[in-house]
Design goal:
Layout: H1 3-27, H2 31-58, E1 63-64, E2 70-72, E3 75-86, E4 90-101, E5 113-119, E6 124-125, E7 145-155, E8 160-167, E9 191-192
Protein backbone atom coordinates (compact mmCIF):
# COMPACT_ATOMS: atom_id res chain seq x y z
CA UNK A 1 0.00 0.00 0.00
CA UNK A 2 1.40 3.39 -0.99
CA UNK A 3 0.49 6.93 0.05
CA UNK A 4 -2.14 7.28 -2.67
CA UNK A 5 -3.86 4.05 -1.63
CA UNK A 6 -3.97 5.40 1.92
CA UNK A 7 -5.31 8.75 0.71
CA UNK A 8 -8.09 6.97 -1.20
CA UNK A 9 -9.06 4.94 1.89
CA UNK A 10 -9.13 8.07 4.08
CA UNK A 11 -11.25 9.86 1.47
CA UNK A 12 -13.65 6.92 1.24
CA UNK A 13 -14.08 6.76 5.01
CA UNK A 14 -14.60 10.53 5.19
CA UNK A 15 -17.21 10.36 2.42
CA UNK A 16 -19.17 7.66 4.24
CA UNK A 17 -18.87 9.47 7.56
CA UNK A 18 -19.87 12.90 6.28
CA UNK A 19 -22.77 11.49 4.26
CA UNK A 20 -24.08 9.56 7.27
CA UNK A 21 -23.80 12.62 9.52
CA UNK A 22 -25.53 14.82 6.92
CA UNK A 23 -28.44 12.36 6.67
CA UNK A 24 -28.69 12.30 10.47
CA UNK A 25 -28.75 16.11 10.57
CA UNK A 26 -31.46 16.19 7.90
CA UNK A 27 -33.54 13.63 9.79
CA UNK A 28 -33.41 15.88 12.86
CA UNK A 29 -34.63 18.93 10.97
CA UNK A 30 -31.26 20.62 10.47
CA UNK A 31 -31.67 20.97 6.72
CA UNK A 32 -29.27 23.89 6.30
CA UNK A 33 -26.49 22.10 8.16
CA UNK A 34 -27.09 18.93 6.14
CA UNK A 35 -26.95 20.75 2.81
CA UNK A 36 -23.81 22.63 3.85
CA UNK A 37 -22.04 19.37 4.71
CA UNK A 38 -23.05 17.76 1.42
CA UNK A 39 -21.94 20.84 -0.53
CA UNK A 40 -18.51 20.75 1.09
CA UNK A 41 -18.27 17.01 0.50
CA UNK A 42 -19.09 17.48 -3.18
CA UNK A 43 -16.40 20.14 -3.53
CA UNK A 44 -13.88 17.83 -1.89
CA UNK A 45 -14.81 14.95 -4.20
CA UNK A 46 -14.52 17.21 -7.25
CA UNK A 47 -11.06 18.30 -6.10
CA UNK A 48 -9.98 14.69 -5.59
CA UNK A 49 -11.33 13.68 -9.02
CA UNK A 50 -9.41 16.56 -10.58
CA UNK A 51 -6.20 15.26 -8.94
CA UNK A 52 -6.84 11.75 -10.33
CA UNK A 53 -7.36 13.10 -13.85
CA UNK A 54 -4.42 15.51 -13.68
CA UNK A 55 -2.06 12.77 -12.53
CA UNK A 56 -3.28 10.55 -15.39
CA UNK A 57 -2.75 13.27 -17.98
CA UNK A 58 0.72 14.39 -16.91
CA UNK A 59 2.18 10.94 -16.16
CA UNK A 60 4.35 9.80 -19.09
CA UNK A 61 3.99 6.40 -20.72
CA UNK A 62 5.79 3.79 -18.62
CA UNK A 63 7.56 0.76 -20.07
CA UNK A 64 8.81 -2.31 -18.23
CA UNK A 65 10.74 -5.39 -19.36
CA UNK A 66 10.14 -9.13 -19.49
CA UNK A 67 10.61 -10.49 -15.97
CA UNK A 68 9.30 -7.37 -14.19
CA UNK A 69 6.31 -8.30 -12.02
CA UNK A 70 3.06 -6.33 -12.26
CA UNK A 71 1.50 -6.55 -8.80
CA UNK A 72 -1.75 -5.67 -7.11
CA UNK A 73 -1.00 -5.90 -3.39
CA UNK A 74 0.27 -9.50 -2.97
CA UNK A 75 -0.95 -10.81 -6.35
CA UNK A 76 1.51 -10.58 -9.24
CA UNK A 77 1.58 -11.38 -12.94
CA UNK A 78 4.92 -11.61 -14.75
CA UNK A 79 5.83 -12.14 -18.39
CA UNK A 80 8.47 -14.88 -18.29
CA UNK A 81 9.16 -15.49 -21.97
CA UNK A 82 8.01 -14.57 -25.47
CA UNK A 83 8.33 -16.55 -28.67
CA UNK A 84 7.36 -15.34 -32.13
CA UNK A 85 6.63 -17.56 -35.11
CA UNK A 86 6.19 -16.13 -38.60
CA UNK A 87 3.33 -17.50 -40.68
CA UNK A 88 2.12 -16.72 -44.20
CA UNK A 89 0.61 -13.29 -43.54
CA UNK A 90 0.79 -13.06 -39.75
CA UNK A 91 2.98 -13.59 -36.70
CA UNK A 92 2.03 -15.75 -33.71
CA UNK A 93 3.26 -14.52 -30.34
CA UNK A 94 3.29 -17.09 -27.51
CA UNK A 95 3.64 -15.27 -24.20
CA UNK A 96 4.58 -17.24 -21.07
CA UNK A 97 3.18 -15.82 -17.83
CA UNK A 98 3.60 -16.53 -14.13
CA UNK A 99 0.73 -15.92 -11.71
CA UNK A 100 2.06 -15.55 -8.17
CA UNK A 101 0.73 -14.94 -4.67
CA UNK A 102 3.13 -13.21 -2.30
CA UNK A 103 0.65 -13.42 0.57
CA UNK A 104 1.81 -15.25 3.68
CA UNK A 105 -1.38 -16.33 5.40
CA UNK A 106 -4.38 -16.30 3.08
CA UNK A 107 -5.52 -17.74 -0.23
CA UNK A 108 -6.28 -15.17 -2.88
CA UNK A 109 -7.17 -14.50 -6.48
CA UNK A 110 -7.44 -11.41 -8.69
CA UNK A 111 -10.53 -11.02 -10.84
CA UNK A 112 -11.16 -9.07 -14.07
CA UNK A 113 -7.52 -9.28 -15.21
CA UNK A 114 -6.89 -9.37 -18.95
CA UNK A 115 -3.90 -9.02 -21.25
CA UNK A 116 -3.59 -7.79 -24.81
CA UNK A 117 -0.93 -6.75 -27.27
CA UNK A 118 -0.86 -3.12 -28.34
CA UNK A 119 0.63 -1.82 -31.55
CA UNK A 120 2.60 1.40 -31.91
CA UNK A 121 -0.52 2.84 -33.56
CA UNK A 122 -2.64 1.99 -30.51
CA UNK A 123 -4.38 -1.06 -32.01
CA UNK A 124 -5.42 -3.75 -29.57
CA UNK A 125 -4.95 -7.48 -30.21
CA UNK A 126 -6.66 -9.89 -27.82
CA UNK A 127 -5.34 -13.42 -27.14
CA UNK A 128 -6.85 -16.49 -28.74
CA UNK A 129 -9.25 -18.40 -26.49
CA UNK A 130 -7.68 -21.71 -25.46
CA UNK A 131 -9.61 -23.83 -22.95
CA UNK A 132 -6.47 -25.37 -21.45
CA UNK A 133 -4.86 -22.03 -20.52
CA UNK A 134 -4.82 -21.45 -16.74
CA UNK A 135 -7.19 -18.54 -15.96
CA UNK A 136 -5.82 -15.43 -14.26
CA UNK A 137 -8.40 -15.66 -11.44
CA UNK A 138 -7.10 -19.06 -10.27
CA UNK A 139 -7.25 -19.28 -6.46
CA UNK A 140 -3.69 -19.40 -5.10
CA UNK A 141 -2.43 -20.66 -1.76
CA UNK A 142 -0.01 -18.41 0.17
CA UNK A 143 3.30 -18.25 -1.71
CA UNK A 144 1.99 -20.34 -4.62
CA UNK A 145 2.80 -19.61 -8.25
CA UNK A 146 1.46 -21.17 -11.44
CA UNK A 147 2.50 -20.80 -15.06
CA UNK A 148 0.23 -20.14 -17.99
CA UNK A 149 0.44 -18.69 -21.48
CA UNK A 150 -1.50 -16.60 -23.94
CA UNK A 151 -1.17 -16.75 -27.74
CA UNK A 152 -1.78 -13.88 -30.14
CA UNK A 153 -1.99 -13.90 -33.94
CA UNK A 154 -0.97 -10.51 -35.35
CA UNK A 155 -0.97 -9.25 -38.96
CA UNK A 156 2.57 -9.21 -40.34
CA UNK A 157 2.56 -5.46 -40.88
CA UNK A 158 1.61 -4.54 -37.30
CA UNK A 159 4.41 -3.01 -35.21
CA UNK A 160 3.85 -4.35 -31.69
CA UNK A 161 4.67 -1.89 -28.91
CA UNK A 162 4.24 -4.44 -26.14
CA UNK A 163 1.86 -6.31 -23.85
CA UNK A 164 -0.61 -4.58 -21.54
CA UNK A 165 -1.96 -6.06 -18.30
CA UNK A 166 -5.29 -4.45 -17.48
CA UNK A 167 -8.36 -4.79 -15.28
CA UNK A 168 -11.64 -4.43 -17.06
CA UNK A 169 -15.29 -4.60 -16.07
CA UNK A 170 -16.03 -4.46 -12.35
CA UNK A 171 -12.36 -4.97 -11.54
CA UNK A 172 -11.37 -1.35 -12.13
CA UNK A 173 -12.81 -0.20 -8.78
CA UNK A 174 -11.22 0.98 -6.56
CA UNK A 175 -8.03 1.21 -8.67
CA UNK A 176 -9.82 3.56 -11.09
CA UNK A 177 -10.04 6.14 -8.31
CA UNK A 178 -6.50 5.97 -6.90
CA UNK A 179 -4.21 8.85 -7.89
CA UNK A 180 -1.50 7.69 -10.30
CA UNK A 181 -2.64 4.07 -10.47
CA UNK A 182 -2.12 2.16 -13.72
CA UNK A 183 -5.90 1.53 -13.94
CA UNK A 184 -7.09 5.02 -12.95
CA UNK A 185 -9.23 7.05 -15.34
CA UNK A 186 -7.36 8.17 -18.49
CA UNK A 187 -4.06 6.81 -17.16
CA UNK A 188 -1.63 5.48 -19.77
CA UNK A 189 -1.40 1.78 -19.01
CA UNK A 190 2.06 0.36 -18.43
CA UNK A 191 3.44 -1.53 -21.45
CA UNK A 192 5.72 -4.54 -21.16
CA UNK A 193 8.24 -4.40 -23.98
CA UNK A 194 8.54 -7.73 -25.79
CA UNK A 195 11.82 -9.03 -27.14
CA UNK A 196 10.64 -12.27 -28.78
CA UNK A 197 13.03 -15.08 -29.42
CA UNK A 198 12.96 -17.36 -32.43
Amino acid sequence: MNIFDLLFLIGLLCTVGVTTFAVWQYAHGRVAVSLSLLRRLLLGLCGYAACVLLASIVTPQRYTAIGDASCSDDWCLTVTQVNARAMTDSVQFDVGLQIESRARGTRQREKFVTVFLQSAAGERFNPRTVATDVPFDTLLAPGQSVHTKRSFVIPSGAAIDGLVIAREGGGRFPRCCVIGDNDSFLHKRRIIKLQPGA
